[in-house]
Records
---
Amino acid sequence: MANLTIQLGRDVTLSNPVMAASGTFGYGDEVPDLVDVNQLGGLVTKSLTLRPNEGHAPPRIVETPAGLLNAIGLANIGVEAFCAGKLPFLETLQTQVFVSIAGATVGEYVDILTAIERSGNKIAGYEINISCPNVDEGGMEFGVSASITETLTAKLRQLTGRFIMIKLSPNVTHIDAIAKAAESGGADGISAINTVVGLDMDPLTGQRSLSNLIGGLSGPAIRPIALAAVHSIAGAVSLPVIGMGGISSAEDIIRFVRAGATAVQIGTANYRDPAVGVNLLARLEQLMEQMQIETLEEIRGVIH
Amino acid sequence: MGLYRLVLRVGDMAALARPGQFVNVLTGAGWDPLLRRPMSIAGIDGRELQLLYKVVGNGTAAMSRWQSGDEIDLLGPLGNGWDAAADGFPVLLGGGAGIAPVYYLHKELLRSSTAHHLIMGSRSTEEHFLQHDPHSGISLSTDDGSAGVAGTVLDALHDLMEAALIPRSGLSLYGCGPPGMMRALADFAGQHEMDCQLALEEIMACGIGLCQGCNVAMRLPGNTPEHSYHQRYRLSCIDGPVFKAKELVTWQI
Ligand SMILES: Cc1cc2nc3c(=O)[nH]c(=O)nc-3n(C[C@H](O)[C@H](O)[C@H](O)COP(=O)(O)OP(=O)(O)OC[C@H]3O[C@@H](n4cnc5c(N)ncnc54)[C@H](O)[C@@H]3O)c2cc1C
Ligand SMILES: Cc1cc2nc3c(=O)[nH]c(=O)nc-3n(C[C@H](O)[C@H](O)[C@H](O)COP(=O)(O)O)c2cc1C
């Protein structure tokens, strides 16, 4: 019998390895008619900023071959409205909830996390989105610097005993070095990858496809990039890696486990079918039986 | 190129639909296209739902190849729908494939015996499936003059006013069509201080508010704080697709 339970951290057990990725599942309360959120292993909420944020002007999305290019611009309700309006619902869920946070300065990350620690007691932990422009460093993303990643992680580590996963950007030269920095800073897990930087336009008129010009690519198109990143990270750190990027099938989940992931997240595929994560579980069990394994752990990192 | 009509047996979902709402259709199992395609509901008949669409790319081309008896995957009904209780004599204007949500409203108004006028505009006669009959409440317009009034839906509207077939004031406009038409309608409604609702056809990914991709710029009240959410922008999928023209920033339409 396949056992899908995943021990992610000392205090965090997932009923199965599938979580919903940040920004692709709202705050978990949008889709009650379409999917039973509690059947997911975990749920990562839309990244929260300190203040409410309108995000970028339209257009924010464009479809590209087997991919979605987006520049939403972290549109979100802000931490105050989140604590008052969304957290109480999230705390009633049986699935493990991770709150994604995004700051423009180290101080903002600290303030957001502190605010949630003050009001929330039942969440499993946090995902730290470090693909954000750092205003103290001239807009350079936090996630491209190993030293800033370590400093940020260490700061947040002092504020909470809950699970902290640092979500890495693939748009760096050495993702393994950033992962090591997060580990040194005291992270409990590494999630990867965030979207891959991209651009598109109308070839004849030259009209930009996104108001922001530059966006982030997700979906099946980025799966091999994500697998290589997960492989590299898993070889560099001893923390659990939560893999994502283009997952749309049970076979894809197994690919990420073989690349070194302990659990996975599903993003863009939720837009096709919000129940995809839950619906893949039966197929995943079937494939595990076919491979004659009881736990995914048995094939984690195994590529011949 | 004409319009395609698709009739779907949707069962109980049909009873939930309102004019102006849409469904989000998965056009195939592969990754081209990756996302669902939003389509306005063009009519409900018992447990059947009708779509009217134009083939513009791979998704709609795949739909046009569906055979009778195929099973398809769709989400809906989604979105807010028209506010059919708006004051004034309803004039419904649909341009090209934009006829779909307008046609459904037309059918509902006929059903409730509510006096109104339907104007359908297109490039040429091929896209028309109705008869030009202004005296019984249906007018057509074509860019090339091959059917009905030569010109735009607004030219047809002017003609109707001149001929006193509709009131000169106190109209309530319901429009859907290409961006140029919707902008012209919004301007016209603004100049004449008429109530006007527009069904926008913003590109969408999820259709259910998860991705925040289909935002629409709103006219802002003066006191909007710098840090706000859901004021500068609304989402076409859950706050729309129908918006009051006067609430929209013109370039957005
Ligand atoms: C709420 C809503 C209701 C709609 N109702 C209808 C309807 O009833 N009938 C109908 O024919 N169409 C309708 N549309 C538009 C329809 O969704 C698009 O035509 C369709 O997504 C195109 O898919 P495709 O894969 O065939 O083309 P693609 O390959 O995606 O695109 C082909 C071309 O069409 C353009 N295009 C794509 N999507 C849109 C869009 N949403 N608006 C304008 N241009 C677009 C692209 O920029 C490209 O130039 C509606 C859209 C929305 C948001
Ligand atoms: C529209 C959209 C919005 C996203 N918003 C966020 C976000 O707020 N925070 C974040 O960390 N990642 C965000 N992501 C990235 C996803 O969580 C995920 O890392 C990425 O899309 C790769 O996975 P996928 O290919 O399964 O979508 C977003 C992705 C998309 C497509």
---
Amino acid sequence: MSDAPKSGRYSVFAIAKQALRQHSGWNRAWASPAPRDRYQVVIVGAGGHGLATAYYLGKNFGITDVAIIEKGWLGGGNTGRNTTIIRSNYLQDPSAAIYDKALKLYEGLSQDLNYNVMFSPRGLIMLAQTEHEVRGYKRTVYANNLQGVSTEWLDPQRVKDLVPIINLDGPRYPVLGGLYQARGGTARHDAVAWGYARACSDMGMHIIQNCEVTGVETDGGQVRAVNTSKGRIGCDKLAMVVAGHSSQLAEMAGFRLPIESVALQALVSEPVKPCMDVVLMANTVHGYLSQSDKGEMVIGGGTDGFNNFTQRGSWQHIEETVRALIETFPMLSRLKMLRQWGGIVDMTGDRSPILSTTPVGGIFVNCGWGTGGFKAIPGSGWAMAELVSKGTPGPLAADFGLNRFREGRFIDESVAAGVAH
Amino acid sequence: MLTLTCPYCGITAEETELHPGGEAHLTRVGPTGTDEEFEAYMFARKNPKGVNFERWRHAYGCGKWFLAARCTATLQVFGTYKSQNAHPPADIVAAIRKSRPDWNPDWTAE
Ligand SMILES: Cc1cc2nc3c(=O)[nH]c(=O)nc-3n(C[C@H](O)[C@H](O)[C@H](O)COP(=O)(O)OP(=O)(O)OC[C@H]3O[C@@H](n4cnc5c(N)ncnc54)[C@H](O)[C@@H]3O)c2cc1C
Ligand SMILES: [Zn+2]
């Protein structure tokens, strides 16, 4: 299908061979073809979820007549803007199932994609800093153990052993314990997008960047095509996987979603020597902390409360986040902050995602991952590929349909996870 | 920082003094409403990238709920008005059209 040369397998032998040729023989990791005038499946959005959907469509269902259309550059949305926390210790069974599927796929993803996504299962602690959180997280430990997701409760001293830089006795928010998932951790966000993109391109799929979808053509309640800045592209099936712009895509097709778009931001410090080798979430104060391989302290905060499409954060949220974290991590007060950025996250009422058929035949949506969808990318793509290929959801996606809002059948993770996750 | 003027007490308040309350002008569905109507009222949102009408509460001030017209793509504020308005009043519409000539109201005034 695509005439571009394949990227070639990456291995120690390939490196040795290229070293002898002054690295002049590497092929591009993915092709940049001009769009054809139709595809079996068009996926809008080349973030992690869109790319993973494409990958598993090819790998699990043999569907490779696929285009992934991206208005910017691939991985340039929330996938390239997040703080890369990966965990699967959710309270509700449907969440645990899809997030743990994702975690299991992450564990083998570098091998599967032949691309180092730098998955680092360094362990993750969710700090309990109020009595309410202590009760909530103990309940989550019990629920996780019933779900087969192993997590444990840590008393404050064990938290201190794992995180020596922590101050347990903050006057406002003392550390009362923590929920620990040893398998949790981080991965390199760009590499996840790049690895999937390379694998999709090698299967002959078209990744079309700098191409904005501006309209959706339907006929008799069935999708026919999308209109883009590079012309009309016909399709049998259309998957909308555009995170913060889901309402806009849905409007083009004539329906509304239970989604509101808000800004979520993060910041990183100057690099310092290794000082924390676990991921830490402090939900009461909205602070998420890990140390990158370069040594930067990566800090995530809370969302803005109002609708916002500007991919910028706001000053008072930085202040709020840093103020609270300094009490629990006094050493942070000496660090200079290097960069700050924002992403537009797609929030649903129950803080759970949507993988669903829609009122229009042939159109499927994958959205609502909000503040916590990086960790879900492989599992979401797996479940979405099944939904798109069969037309009906499989077991992983079944509970995440749009009909749950009509039926009052919420998957309420807002109670379980505090706010962000 | 976002600043809005409270139409009740007249104070120009920073975002930290206010509490956001979501989409404005939703019509409440009564006890005879269908499941579809309740779903639309409670969950389906316009979430526009552009002109947006929304509820705010002057939480650390006079405590009143009011409404604001704002652009979600640029953060420009067109104005604020009292919650007793069933639709954005004429001066707000004029302020929006001044900087967004192509914008049209999606309601019909009674
Ligand atoms: C600051 C921040 C921190 C976060 N931290 C974490 C974390 O620690 N752990 C975690 O699990 N999650 C985290 N998240 C959430 C996570 O980033 C997202 O849930 C996830 O990346 C969503 O992936 P996606 O592929 O759905 O969306 P995106 O990566 O946003 O991809 C959607 C793509 O669609 C494209 N698009 C939109 N409209 C159009 C159009 N009309 N035509 C063509 N293309 C279009 C966009 O350009 C974009 O590239 C964080 C998010 C942010 C912003
Ligand atoms: Zn007031």
